[in-house]
Amino acid sequence: MKQGQIKVTKENLLQWIENYRWMVETIEEARQPVAKVDNNSYIGAKTAMYGIEATLPKASGGTSDPVFTEVQRRVYSLNYRIKEYEQKIAEVQKRIPYVIGDREFEVLHRLLDGDSMRAIGKHMKLSSTTIIRTRECIVKQMLMGA
């Protein structure tokens, strides 16, 4: 296995399906400050390009602004997690077409939406045990398909 790849096991896949919704939300939330950094709104001090200020010495070294330091910490620490979450989400999405059956498909999408076993069972008028068995069937199909 190459560096940066993730291992897909039954337990991992179950966990990724269970955590799918919050991983997507975390990525969306984490991308907001990253987008600001890409637009240069947080990076470095603004320096005058013209006039007398342009001839004055420029600041060297880092910044002592604690807010800027915190933004940098968050952006760089989130990059690794964002990439990891994206890989897990992509792995689940890649395997969705292998799910066969209307019941399985409905349960899978409700799981991906973050619904609990009890809520899915109540909606589909099935017991939570049946939903758990259906989830096991879904994971088996997803593993066999890829």
Task: Summarize the helices and strands and which ones pair or pack.
Blueprint: H1 10-38, H2 66-95, H3 102-112, H4 117-124, H5 128-145
Characterise the protein shown here.
The protein starts with 9 loop residues before the first helix and ends with a helix. The longest helix is centred in the middle third of the chain and has 30 residues, at 66-95. α1 (10-38) crosses α2 (66-95), α3 (102-112) packs across α5 and α4 crosses α5. Helices cover 66% and strands 0% of the residues. The protein is elongated and about 75 Å long. It has 5 helices and no strands. With 146 residues, it is an all-alpha fold.
The number of distinct helices, counting runs of at least 4 residues, comes to: 5
Largest sheet: none
> Portion of residues in helices?
55-70%
Shape: elongated
Strand tally: 0
Structural class based on helices, strands and sheet pairing: mainly alpha
Average residue pLDDT: 82
Helices and strands, in order, run as HHHHH
- CA-atom Rg in angstroms: 23 Å
Uncertain stretches:
37-44
List keywords for this structure.
146 residues, mainly alpha, 66% helix
Compact description:
The chain contains 5 helices and no strands. The chain is mostly helical and 146 residues long.
